[in-house]
Design brief:
Elements lengths: L21 H10 L13 E7 L2 E9 L6 E7 L3 E4 L18 H12 L11 H22 L17 H9 L6 H17 L11 E4 H5 L1 H5 L1
Antiparallel strand pairs: 1-2, 2-3, 4-5
Helix pairs in contact: 2-3, 2-4, 3-5
The structure holds zinc ion.
The site of zinc ion has 8 residues, from loops.
Amino acid sequence: MSDPPARHGDDPHISLRLARTNAEAHLYMDLHPCDACGASDFHPRSSVVMIVHDLGSRYHGTCPSCGTEREFVFRIPEQTHAPSGDAVQYGDARPSELLDPGEWLWVADSASGQGPADPSGLSPEETTRQRYFLAVAVAAIAEVLKFVPEGADAVPDSAFVSERGHSVYAAEPGRFSKPRLEAVLGAYRDISMRFGATRVDETIPGTTSTASNVDQEESTE
Ligand SMILES: [Zn+2]
């Protein structure tokens, strides 16, 4: 249990998992708190690094709670897509390599449970905040759907690989049927439009270079 954390320089044969977007990398780090103290608060510096033939992004910093040095390294795509407007996008059409479908549903549940489903009585700031959480929920359900194979009607059992993902799946496997996921996605989209969101399925993602995308997330907070 006292093994030091793996470093990207130790073994060039370690295959790094793909972080399709900076947002996905941050979400993964949020779901993996500090090994030493369990705190999830972490404000790493990010840099683009070369790992053998892959382009990687390295997130490094100290845990604000206990001072432990923390590092995450992901493989990143040559080209990344930045969402337009206030749409949230964690990746392209490929299923995530960082979060399994149960974790994505957990993210959607957490985001959609942050506030009311009706904007009446909310301040503009609260409305904007809730619109963001609903955009996260929409994007996360869309990520679950990417695990449904072509022609299948549900996420297969084999897609669940994390402890959290397994427990969400075990609690109610029926939530991972394609029709049910599509219904939930439609419902979240309808609710988000009450909060002034534009339909995310009609936005056209712009393309930016990887290098400029890496630091984008930090400046939007
Ligand atoms: Zn810590």
